[in-house]
Design goal:
This protein has about 150 residues and is α/β, with parallel strands linked by helices. It contains five helices and five strands, in the order αββαβαβαβα.
Length: about 150
Amino acid sequence: MTDSKTRPLVVVAAFAASLALGLLVTFWLLGGWSGATGPAAIGGPFELTDSGGARVTDAALKGRPSLVFFGYTHCPDVCPTTLFEMSELLRAMGPDADKVNAYFISVDPERDTPAAMKDYLSSFDPRLTAPQDVIGWLRRALAVPGLRL
């Protein structure tokens, strides 16, 4: 439980982690910086399982816009608000929303089990899924054994 003094720090930390990882994944998916001379030694193909048991691979991201939000299920305000806004955006898009990937990625995999994520996401648009072990995949892809968020 957070008190009123630490709550803003938790919100800022969650936002900063979400932004940093989102930018990292975006640069990786776009092939890195324009000065690159070849494929990066990090990243590469991946296969994850989402909260509904479906496979999520790097191929699912190619050629499709993706909404990605990093957060956690015990987040008191920013996470549910952002997921609600993502759900409203998908609803407003109508049938075109089926052409977009929408992912909620947990930065607290110890508590956010597949069952907890599935239950949490049941309050939002059903197209919003939660790939599991993204943090583990990032740790391996970036060759950072002690990566902790």
